[in-house]
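[User] Could I get a sequence and structure tokens?

[Assistant]
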Amino acid sequence: MTAHYVDEKYYQAVAPQSLSERLMVVARDRIYADFLRCCRPSATDTILDVGVSDVVTDAANMLERKYPHPERLTAAGLGTADDFRKAFPAVTYRQIEPNTWLPFADKAFAIATSNAVLEHVGSARNQALFVAELARVAEKVFISVPHRYFPVEHHTAIPFLHFRDGSFAAACRWLGKTEWADKGNLILMSKQRLRAAVPDGMPASMGYTGIPLGPFSSNLFLFIDGRPR
């Protein structure tokens, strides 16, 4: 029987050992460096990684692959993640439901992080809920997303036409990729949309990350430090 992976569709444009995968690895290495710079985790800090992939490739699950203290990590995902559990046995795994409260107590973790998930939660309201939940369960939050103004769209490999919703939808129809034009599956993220997901009054900073191309860089990050001042 062929295994079913919840996250398989997110890697359609990234074939194993391809140039696309190598570029994704480069981008995620830079995201990881920004995560360390912003969050400054200690060896004893507990870290929650929300939205890990049940597809185990060189480009997936950046934190679990690189962090030197995997026993301090709790990973949360939508699937049963059998392959993930085998690949990262020292990491605690929790299966979660989409667009609902996280099954963790307030400030249960020192850090909560999520990579390439916020754009898939289905609506601006759900994005705000997702960010608020990460901030509820952790003192510091680091979120990264694909940037819509990178020259090539991450999920479809469509160049430039994704800068506008109308041209992106038309290109998706022409290429038979209409699911990606549905905002229930994908919200193309700009700095404005990322900022709008932050609850009012919550201290946050943003920046470019991933493959560095200035305002056309491949990814954006959001950092929230909720520790008492």
In short: Strands lie at 47-50, 73-77, 92-95, 109-115, 138-146, 204-209, 219-225. The first helix runs from residue 19 to 39. The CA atoms of residues 122 and 184 lie 4 Å apart. The chain has six helices and seven strands.
